[in-house]
Amino acid sequence: MNEQDFVTVLWAAAALRAPCVLTCDGEKGRGPNLLSLPFQLLCFQPPERKRFYQNVSISQGEGGFEINLDHRKLKTPQAKLFTVPSEALAIAVATEWDSQKDTIKFYTMHLTTLCNTALDNPTQRNKVQLIRAAVKFLETDTVCYRVEEPAALAELQKKEWDPIVAWAEKRYNVAIGSSTSIMGPNIPASTRDTFISHLASYNMWALQGIEYVITQLKSLILSMGLIDRHITVEKAVLLSRLEEEYQIQRWGNVEWAHDYDLCELRARAAAGTLFVHLCSESSTVKHKLLQD
């Protein structure tokens, strides 16, 4: 890797926080082959690249469904063949690539990013570790931390968050509660065990999506409400940003900046939720999606 390539990668690392999605082989005479770069540097990607393909298609291979960009097979950052477990997910990913115009905007391709993470598993975590990481969010769950003042915000939190906490307690037959203490609520061990057992019913791919949604919403409770189709993406995002929305209503918003953040969070939460459903082995979920 020459100096110019290294500077480019460093710039990408500083500019982006999301994992890369570019996976195709570089072409001779058209810049560096990104697959030759160290994987640690491939965790970041320039936000845009000129579109280098005309047609996008899917095909079924031995390991699942593959994405084709003209004659190229899509690959992951670790140079693995990009193969997904369901045709529906393959179509959704292919749509992301096909919807790119003259410029490929990688930061808009959330499903591709999630598939890369599931295939490469860059953190090398197993199913048990993924589940425990998700359940650990209960300790700092957004909807469990309350304020005592200002009184208007405290009342808003009670009005908006109490119903979703009550739903989760009834849905999973657990005790969650809330707290104004900086230490947060005291989550019973039985509650953690129940969520661990529930999450264990999902496969590894779906768990990657669940954790992604949780990190976006900063809440296991909101994420499960969204994935269980109890609340919409818009509602889940609103509840996750409740304090920020309160401050905006009081002090006003920064023109375009708040709207961009809101739209981006909705896109990520929606993509993660769709990913979970498309990766789920449950025929019930697939049937519900077709009905709706």
TrEMBL record:
GO terms for biological process: mitochondrial proton-transporting ATP synthase complex assembly. Keywords: Chaperone, Membrane, Mitochondrion, Mitochondrion inner membrane, Transit peptide. Coiled coil: none annotated. GO terms for cellular component: cytosol; mitochondrial inner membrane; mitochondrion; nuclear speck. It is found in: Mitochondrion inner membrane. Pfam families: ATP12 (PF07542). Interacts with ATP5F1B; involved in the assembly of the F1 component of the mitochondrial ATP synthase (ATPase). Interacts with FMC1. PANTHER family: ATP SYNTHASE MITOCHONDRIAL F1 COMPLEX ASSEMBLY FACTOR 2 (PTHR21013:SF10), ATP SYNTHASE MITOCHONDRIAL F1 COMPLEX ASSEMBLY FACTOR 2/ATP12 PROTEIN, MITOCHONDRIAL PRECURSOR (PTHR21013). Belongs to the ATP12 family. This is ATP synthase mitochondrial F1 complex assembly factor 2. The lineage of its organism: Eukaryota, Metazoa, Chordata, Craniata, Vertebrata. The gene is ATPAF2.
